[in-house]
Here is the input.
Amino acid sequence: MTIRAEGVKKWFYDRKRGEFPAVDGVSFECKKGEVFGLLGPNGAGKTTTLMIITTILKPDAGKVEVNGFDVATNPESVRLNFGFVSADAALYDLLTPRETLEFVGKLSKYPKEKLAARIDELINLLDMSSFADTRCQALSTGMKQRVAIARALVHDPPVVIMDEPTSGLDVPTMQSVYQLVRQCREMGKCVLFSTHIMSEAEKLCDRIGIINKGKVLAMGTLSELKEQYAKSDLEEIFLAVVGGSGGNENNGS
Amino acid sequence: MKTMGHEILTLMHKEIIETIREFKSLGLFIGFCAVFFPMFSLFGNTEISAALIEDQISNQRGKIGVRGDIDLVRDVLKEKKELDISPLYDIEPVKSIEDDVYDIVVVIPDSKKTASGEKPTIDVFYDSHSEGTISWAVEVAAAMSSSQMKMLRTKLKKVGVDSDSSTIPKIKYKGIPHMESTGAAPLSETLPTVILFFITTVAIGGAIGGITMERENKRLAQLLLLPIKRSSILYSLLLVVSGISLLPVLAGLFSLSWAFSLDEIADRLKMHNLAVSVPPETVLWILLLTVPIAISVTASSILFSCYYRIAQQARGYSLIYMVVLNGIVRYIITFKSLESILLYIPIVNSVYVMQQALDGKVTAFQIIIATLITLAASAWMIEVGAKKLSDEKLLVGVERAPRFQFFGKGALTNR
Here is the structure.
């Protein structure tokens, strides 16, 4: 098992509403060589769940393990074992993609003697040669997202966590992201893919967990979900599961 | 420890690259300081100050006490009709000035002492807070050190002090700083606070840019995903920003020393009514104490930045922070009753030590104690700030329920 979440809870506070659950007992597993999709409307608790897995937030209850390391008791080892891609690339504008990868690679304790070769490999894999030495401030959104993906993979982590990585991208760039997710699966990596785009989840994910109001309401392979809900596509299943209510007001996106 | 060192160096490398590539605002500030320091010296009210000094010299007669070869001193100062030269006898030089027996005491080296190989020095004692006395002291020392030097050397050789004709006795100013101030403002009260102001300006800008803005742009969250210690991020920022905050001061001093010689700087400080208790070359050494000031001020600025999520908000409060920090430091230093503990109050101590050093009153031990306390306090501030980096509310904007709540919806919530 590479990611294991068990009864994870996270409470937020709002002066008007008081305390409310952003994540309410989420449990799932993601195995090696598997793409697990976390599907949910805006504010469902997807990003909060990912933030707990990536050690940015601490769980109020429950347990999360990444590659065998507990996020609460061993966060530094957890951080060595995953790469994270979000919709916001958040790159250093004044560094070039190559410098960014070198910076992250060094801090991620990737072997120094192999780092240059690894960076070249990623630059070729993500077709970044033409802008590898251009400052990030001059890159387009698609280019920046490719750099962000390379940044997540530079230390060759066993777990890749993606939070709506195709948000704001054009179709060719989206296709290259999909291609990369498939490559990660082929390489035996565990990929946790959060999205609210049904077609994306249908194309990429081996198993899907549908989350709403902080709870996982349905989980299984696409065919299992189709059978369980007697629907022909994921969009219909999704509406049946979340009750057509769409987003909620949890703010725990 | 080795890993943390590697982390800090890697983070510093990135910070330095970014600073070099975005040099416009810092470059402007450095340029301003490079021009400000010499300009301040150039456009002083030199005529009035010179006239004041002239007036003091012409209306009073200076009493010079001499220990050693009094004929030699009379010879050297024969042009200075306004000075009465008498032997010092058995009174201690400092006491004779404190008791107003003499304005200046000149101690000519003893031939027996210098035979042991010590470099001969001529000590000129004076009240470092009395403008007229300083002027006389400068006159006496200048007369001895320049035009009359050849004669002095010959005479010293005759009495057996100078066995090697190439050895030139060094003039040593010995200011007596604790005497009551009667005129000029001591440099020690001005320079440390000017330096404190310049350093705070750069440090707070660097800290907000390195923490609050990074938090706002979500780059800090990306950095926190890496397997590094939180304090490594802040230590690297501390080293780079405190280094950068020193640049304007260094640029100012470099351009000042390029524009004027040490003697000219001393004269110009005098023209600005700034009394210097130690020689100009010592002032330059004392300016090394700017380093602990920069480190402690930067650490406190980083801690300040760690408490803000929005850069605009942090910038708004930074002005208040700067004024309060500068005000508190300057205010505490004026408390005579706190003198015994000033060495132990972080940030205040590094400014205090520089002030004391400029007055010639500080010992090496005190400098070491104050510097160690400054560094320890800076490390503590960094550790506190590092804990704040992971604060969930600051990082992702989520709030947690107050620990004690008696009213409102959260009051009865039971998990």
Summary: Residues 171-186 of chain A form the longest helix (16 residues). Confidence is low (pLDDT under 50) at residues 246-253 of chain A. Chain A touches chain B at residues 9, 11-19, 22, 51, 54-58, 60-61, 76-77, 79-80, 82, 84, 86, 88, 90-92, 94-95, 99, 103-104, 106-109, 135, 151, 251 (CB under 8 Å). DSSP finds nine helices and ten strands in chain A.
